[in-house]
Amino acid sequence: MTSPVNVDVKLGVNKFNVDEEQPQQTRFRDLFNRRHFPFVLFVAAIWTCQVIPMFAIYTFGPQIVGLLGLGVGKNAALGNVVISLFFMLGCIPPMLWLNTAGRRPLLIGSFAMMTLALAVLGLIPDMGIWLVVMAFAVYAFFSGGPGNLQWLYPNELFPTDIRASAVGVIMSLSRIGTIVSTWALPIFINNYGISNTMLMGAGISLFGLLISIAFAPETRGMSLAQTSNMTIRRQRMG
Fold first, then answer.
1. Could you tell me which Gene3D superfamilies the record lists for this protein (predicted)?
2. Which of 86, 135, 148, 168 is most solvent-facing, going by the fewest CB within 10 Å?
3. What are phi and psi of 16, to 5 degrees?
């Protein structure tokens, strides 16, 4: 573990206090020690639960919205464009909410709304066109919270000497899930129908919600020296 050194930095008329870490040799096996590996599993879990439904919607968007009653051809493509727009817009507010609401409430609230949106699509048959678009838009918008945190958390929770390796390992673990799910999605739709597919997506988001409730740390207002020395522990609601 790196030891922070307190350094005063003067830029113009302003003076800043910086925690500077001493250079350390990176050892990949350190990722699997008792402190780092639980955080690897936690971030990989929330990352995977966010990207599996998202990749499926991106890859098979027109087909999915068509099966949910949004027509075919141009209408389905237009609906997919609207949903993609909300995926983009959903990345902006969390940049502000990270430091106002905090990391933990943002993650929990986002997964709750994502779960609700997919559950509505799975439980209510023959929804109107605009309700289908609205439910997908809610999912797409709130996916921005976990989308931002899956990059922020690794950079806060791991020390500098192992941070890049941690991000790489976590991303690789999440991509295993997306590869399998993207391959399996058409088969699942054919065998079980679009409603059950949406409920499966809701179940994946629900798992992300439960993991977040149990283990998501709050790092708002803390320095990197502090967050990189945290240990994972079961959290309490409230």
1. MFS general substrate transporter like domains (1.20.1250.20)
2. 168
3. -120, 150
* Nearest of 167, 146, 193, 166 to residue 52 by alpha carbon: 146
Q: Using one digit for the tens of pLDDT, what is the confidence trace for 118-170?
A: 999 899 877 777 788 888 889 999 999 999 999 999 999 999 889 999 999 99
Structure tokens at 62: 């027109």
Contact partners, residue 79, CB within 8 Å, separation at least 6: 61, 62, 65, 70, 71, 129, 132, 133, 136
Q: How far is CA 30 from CA 1, 68, 118, 158, 160, in A?
A: 9, 47, 38, 11, 12
Q: What is the CA radius of gyration of the chain?
A: 20
Other CB atoms within 10 Å distance of the CB of residue 123: 12
> 14: which 2 tokens?
């302003």
Q: Which domains does the chain have, with CATH numbers?
A: 44-218 (1.20.1250.20)
Tell me whether residue 10 is exposed, middle or buried, using C-beta atoms within 10 angstroms of its C-beta: 0 to 12, 13 to 18, 19 or more: exposed
Supply the pTM of this predicted model: 0.82
CA pair distance 41, 94, nearest whole angstrom: 23
Interatomic CA distance for residues 141 and 26, integer angstroms: 37
